[in-house]
# Entry
Amino acid sequence: MGQDERVEAPLIHSGEWNIHYDYAVGETATRFFSRLRDEGKIAGKRCPECKAVLLPPRAYCERCFVKTEEWVDVGPEGTIEAFTIVYEPFDGLPQPPYAVAYVTLDGASTAMANFVRGLDLSVPEVAARELAVGKRVEAVFIDARKGTITDFHYRLK
Amino acid sequence: MVQRVGILGAGHTTFAERRDDVRLEELVFEAAASALADAGIARADLGTVVMAGADQLDGRSISSMMAAGPAGAYLKDEIRTTTEGSYAAILAGLRILSGEYETALAITWSKTSESPYDLISSLSYDPFFSRPVAFNDVVESAIVSSTYPSPTVQLAEAAAAIVVKNRRNGSANPRAFLREPTTAEAVLASPYVAYPIRSAELPPPCDGAVALVLASEERVLRSERPPVWIQGFGWGTSNYGYRGGEAAAGLAGLRAAAANAYAMAGVSRPASEIEFAEVFDGTPFDELLAYEALGLASQGKGAEFALEGGSAAGGSCPVNLSGGAQSTNLRFAAGMMRILEAYLQLSHRAGPVQLVAPRQGLAHGATSYPAQGHAVFVLRNY
Ligand SMILES: [Zn+2]
# Structure
């Protein structure tokens, strides 16, 4: 039997997974999100050993490896630790441009990420200078809060 | 430790933007067969197989069920890690050191043309505090880069210099996917994707698979080829998220990994003892931050090290002579490719990018979450 000389374009068979998850938020974060929604307050948890105020709140300190108990209100002002401004669209992310920063809120020991709004992002270098590490921001709470992290965002002071 | 781990051979597939000519398992077979042929051993003589794969990228749940056969593991002991590709070499090295196995095939693959990589990388983030705030690998890498304490202009120029260096190196490497040099002007003129990362700093991905055959000291010494040893290896994971005042750019996980690898290899002054390095460079900022964390440049001097040519071919410690991921962006398998290229250097088989008589080098792999998980390998040929 002779060799088949046809050259065929490789076939592609498509597939899709559409999987829904129901993530348990846990008692610690439930309290955080409920307080955020109902009172517009941000609270972290203090480690009994290293005294770090962990934010987002954790039921344990992963360094000291002990449970945390005490709640501590933090913010609403804080300091930028790290940031970026996104200018290109990505699958599953918002329409650009938008700014995201890790902020250590006053009274907290760890930084928490959120959007930074109310800033002109049209000139990257100019906007980046405004958002530099060390700059001061405040948490701004939206009116229609749902108990999710985007119930607030940061705004430059 | 009674024995050390050596590398008996290595292999990889051809790389392309899309390898539609092969199914994923055929891609795995291509790399495994190539590595076994290079090592000069038959599948029947192979002790164990260690795979690194990511189900969510492969689009198959338990992708190792599909991959074990073509990786050479039919009726053999096999195990799979879902951490970045180079972690297969860690696990394989540990299995050799256990004394249970004389040889181990470590293999990883990246066929990301089949799946939405950016979207999948967003799944790494916790669904409560991070995912609603728009994260993926590129966004996170940009955030980490923002904490590097260097003047903005110098940082941008250093990043561009790294891209230019790696692309120039890659253009000479017959194994590289992208073999086109670029210029600093072209890099710095490209638009921001996520500040400070520009579009020309994000290399186009390619499909491919990479495999190494690791072996015990005794087995390596029976080989006809001059030996190459994994003299030390270490890995480290930093915390998820940031503590105030601990800049993410410090790469605590990489420092821990390097300290472990250097201790095992007996390296006390990496800047003078590591002659060349193959470092994760998914963005040039990843490579830049690694200079200091690996001790190749002194603290705070990483950008200068790049700008003054310390990491260039002919510099004090050439980094990514192969062209790195900037030239061969095997997203999940990038770290294993770094080991393969460092191995070829020490085996005097790196071709046009070969150094003159290298004795000791380093390879580095990083998990997709850029600041968190790192693996470091110190390779030597004496
Ligand atoms: Zn603690």
